[in-house]
């Protein structure tokens, strides 16, 4: 990706994060939306926005089915977000927004949770073993 496209993607990411937080008032969007990355096509026609959604009632964050509705809400709001984005950008055209669930980040978070759980169990079993040998 060229440096110009990367700067544009960074600007879109920052602006969209603010717009989603402040302007999207859909009660079905219950989770905390984080924009992982934005990839802009070379012709500036499209911007693929990769998001992760932290649901308040779901600890793992790995279930893509629970996030389909949130991604669909964001895709339905893409016209509004594109219009708002065009007011802040200094480009002739504003790319169309396509939202995607970022499975890579969600999978990485899930793996980190599993590692933390394994480390905790290992620590607990070592402590239990030390207590038994001390007797």
Write a brief structural summary.
One of its GO terms (molecular function) is ribosomal small subunit binding. It is found in: Cytoplasm. The protein is of the alpha+beta class and about 140 residues long.
Rounded to the nearest angstrom, the radius of gyration is 20 Å
User: In total, how many beta strands?
Assistant: 3
Total helical elements: 4
Order of helices and strands: HEEHHEH
CATH topology of the largest domain: GMP Synthetase, Chain A, domain 3
CATH architecture of the largest domain: 2-Layer Sandwich
What is the CATH H-level superfamily of the largest domain? Answer: K homology (KH) domain
Strand percentage: 15-25%
Average of per-residue pLDDT values? 84
Q: Identify low-pLDDT runs.
A: none
Strand order of the largest sheet: 1-2-3
In the residues, how many domains can be counted?
2
Report the helical percentage.
55-70%
Largest sheet: 3 strands, mixed
Overall shape: it is: elongated
CATH classification, class level of the largest domain: Alpha Beta
Structural class: alpha+beta
* Termini separation: 63 Å
């Amino acid at each position: 990706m060229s440096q110009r496209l990367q700067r544009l993607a960074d600007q879109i990411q920052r602006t969209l994060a603010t717009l989603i937080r402040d302007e999207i008032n859909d009660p079905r969007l219950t989770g905390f939306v984080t924009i992982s990355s934005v990839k802009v096509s070379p012709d500036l026609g499209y911007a693929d926005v990769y998001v992760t959604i932290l649901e308040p009632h779901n600890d793992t964050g790995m279930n893509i089915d629970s996030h389909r509705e949130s991604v669909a809400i964001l895709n339905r709001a893409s016209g509004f977000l594109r219009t708002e984005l065009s007011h802040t950008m200094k480009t002739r055209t504003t790319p169309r927004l396509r939202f995607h669930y970022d499975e890579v980040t969600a999978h990485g978070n899930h793996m980190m949770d599993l590692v933390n759980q394994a480390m905790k169990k290992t620590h607990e079993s070592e402590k239990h073993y030390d207590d038994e040998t001390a007797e």
